[in-house]
Design brief:
Elements lengths: L1 E3 L15 E4 L2 E7 L13 H18 L7 E8 L5 H11 L6 E6 L9 E8 L6
Parallel strand pairs: 4-5
Antiparallel strand pairs: 1-2, 2-3, 3-6, 4-6
Helix pairs in contact: 1-2
Protein name: Putative endoribonuclease L-PSP
InterPro entries: RidA (IPR006056), RutC-like_sf (IPR035959), YjgF/YER057c/UK114 (IPR006175)
Pfam family, one: Ribonuc_L-PSP
């Protein structure tokens, strides 16, 4: 297993976890929220949160020599389903067909007052250990 570091411009993890782990051709990225360097959520609502999150996910994928096309599973956690359309737009801008499998979960709250959290599973292939 190989851990990945935090994306540039984000604070370090606030708990005992790795931002990402590469294991046996699979990449598991921990849930990302739109934290700025000062530890606050990016202003502008769920659409802006999604833009920052997907930018950071792209950077983390790059650390593992991967691209969004390697993502096979995406989980979205939303505190307000009214923001679903903006998140869908961010997903459409980030991914291209064939799109990854996806789960969307409505939750009561997220850390630091975030309205969106996203985690990713990517397959990099057998030669990526």
């Amino acid at each position: 297993m190989r851990p990945l570091g935090s994306p540039a411009g984000s604070p370090p993890p606030v708990g005992p976890y790795s931002p990402g782990i590469l294991a046996g051709g699979w990449l598991y990225l921990s849930g990302q929220i739109a934290l700025q360097e000062d530890g606050t959520i990016v202003p502008g609502g769920m659409r802006e949160e999604a833009r920052l999150i997907f930018s950071r996910l792209k950077e983390m994928l790059s650390q593992a020599r991967a691209t969004p096309s390697h993502v096979v599973k995406l989980t979205l956690y939303l505190t307000d389903m009214e923001g679903f359309q903006g998140v869908n737009e961010a997903c459409a801008a980030f991914f291209s067909p064939p799109y990854p499998a996806r789960v969307t979960v409505g939750v009561k709250e997220l850390p630091r007052g975030a309205s969106l959290e996203v985690d990713v599973v990517a397959y990099l292939g057998e030669d990526s250990h």
